[in-house]
Amino acid sequence: MPSTLIDADRLWSRLMALAAIGATPAGGVNRQALSDGEIEAWRLIIGWAGDAGLEPATDTAGNLFLTLAGRDRSLPPLMLGSHVDSQPTGGKFDGAAGVLAALEAVVQLGGNGIVPPRDVTVVAWMNEEGSRFAPGMMGSEAFTGERSLAAIRAVRDAQGISVGEALDRLHAAFPEIALKPLGFPVAAYLEMHIEQGPVLEATGRVIGVVTGIQGKKTFEVTVSGAEGHAGTLDMADRRDAVAAFGRMVTALNAEIGGFDAVIKFTIGRVRVEPNAPSVVPSRVVFSVDLRHPDNAVLDTTGARLTAICQEHVGPCTVEVRPLVSAPSNEFDGRLRAMIARAASDQGHAFMDILSAAGHDARHLAKVCPSAMIFIPCRGGLSHVEHEWAEPAHVAAGAAVLAQVLRELVAVPPGPHDPAA
User: Does any domain span residue 136?
Assistant: First the structure.
């Protein structure tokens, strides 16, 4: 690996320092979106970027930008990054490795005396995870116009705090940094990430050239019944929301979860009301996460979900509210070829791979040439406190990212670049 591309020791040290913010007793990270932990993480990262002469900025959606100035600042920037928010029991690498790999690539670029022809910007997107405020990827969706900022600001967490209130608090913590317009043009976007799956490790590959991201739909389902005394209300007279929920879940898992070997069907959150041991439940609210690489299958099973819930509601009522509908996408072929060539040049085993998880790059791909680099994670595990990526693999992914960045700096932009 060419030493001029990245400083692997510095990258790892910074990754571990960032992991200390929101560290959990079990070795993971709880650094949820727009929290005190994320504000602290911003301060640390902005400090590192400032030491290297990068300019910090944000936007009204709470995305963080760190820019190495180019010769012609009127051109759309090259952008690379990921996110620094985590799940409540998340790991050290999900998102964070991509942001710090991008920072390392850009810092080393400037440190080698290279002045790029256009700005190069490291980005940390707001609320990729969607753990505190659902659904996720709010920052990249606002940036690309997928969702309105007004709708995003209205979302509330479990404590009743709105995204708008949390965003205002974030911006108040950084009054000195510039506010960029929401959704400015971008020449190209790159994102490095742990795979969050087992394929690279199982095949002995170090670099995954991500072909695209499988489609995803999410729903919030509300089952409404009626409260009653557990000791006096006859079974025949009950409008038991949990009983209806149980029938729905059984049918949904059988038909949708068993649709084919590729589909992913998950009920990840359930809330029962009044949640008292001796009261017949009056209300159940549950989430559905549905994924498939074939958009036709995703549409078919998504439509069946509502029908199945209605078929098994019994004496209760049900409302199925769609939250996210993100079709499968493909990443830019030219950028993918550059990633493969960089991996080959550096002697890393690589392969094409479809992303089973969602990423901010999905939304950037709609507005500019975009691509992703995957590195292995131990056991294919992510969104867990024992999530792990080997230092050598983090360095390999960052060096491939850095080489592609160097090539993009040296060659004209692609045909989708607004400045081309």
Answer: yes
The span from the CA of 175 to the CA of 237, in Å, is: 60
Residue position matching structure tokens 């920072």: 103
Burial 5-18 (b: 16+ CB within 10 A, else e): bbbbeebbebbeeb
* pLDDT (0 to 100) of residue 1: 42
Distance of CA 67 to the CA centre of its chain: 21
Phi first, then psi: what are they for 371, rounded to 5°?
A: -160, 165
Q: State whether 192 and 337 are in the same domain.
A: yes
- Do the domain assignments include residue 297? yes
Residue reference for tokens 């960029």: 180
Total count of domains within the chain: 2
> What's the count of helices (H) and strands (E) in the chain, helices before strands?
12, 17
Query: Would you say 363 and 152 are in contact if contact means Cβ atoms under 8 Å apart?
Result: no
> On the CB side of 33, how many CA atoms lie within 13 Å of its CA?
34
- pLDDT tens per residue across span 135-192: 899 999 999 999 999 999 999 999 999 999 999 999 999 999 999 999 999 999 999 9
Burial label for 280, CB within 10 Å (0-12, 13-18, 19+), is buried
Estimate to the nearest angstrom the gap between the alpha carbon of 88 and the chain centroid.
Answer: 14
Is residue 418 included in any domain, yes or no? no
